[in-house]
């Protein structure tokens, strides 16, 4: 299967709240202003944190735990790790949740997480619950950067709580396409196909 190509993000940030002046590079703890060097440093640091979370996952019960996961993954790179974004963002012309609505989004996400923990017991129920949570978390898109990596760790942790492995390996083209088609287009059925493909019961 051929990997699909998706357009990048378009950020509405006229005051350079997160970036260096006249640059798209995010302000970081190492003051790296070269895009390639900053990207490489971020990838290296977060990859190490992903490994640590694989050994000691953060249990996700509320949105506060999602913030904790983002904070853990990006703590070495950004001062704002684990904090809601303060700018509005869109992708391919489609806007994510406006930051002004984060209060309502948090309440709704908390209700989805509670319903998942209380009512998702069979494999089919877990698949449907994870798909709905991922779809809404993606539209929420609470962070300036790192939403995808945070989403994937949230899903892994939630599945683990139900006795399943759910590793969204975006290196594999078929998994990547299902994940991106589902999240970019808000296609819950596509996300259900993704989880049906990757969800494995822990021995």
UniProtKB/TrEMBL annotation:
It comes from Lactococcus lactis subsp. cremoris. PROSITE patterns: FIDO (PS51459). Its EC number is 2.7.7.108. Gene3D superfamilies: Fido-like domain (1.10.3290.10). One of its GO terms (molecular function) is AMPylase activity. It catalyses: L-threonyl-[protein] + ATP = 3-O-(5'-adenylyl)-L-threonyl-[protein] + diphosphate; L-tyrosyl-[protein] + ATP = O-(5'-adenylyl)-L-tyrosyl-[protein] + diphosphate. It holds the Pfam family Fic. PANTHER family: PROTEIN ADENYLYLTRANSFERASE FIC-RELATED. GO terms for biological process: regulation of cell division. It comes from the Bacteria. Residues 61-200 form the Fido domain. This is protein adenylyltransferase. The keyword Lipid metabolism does not apply.
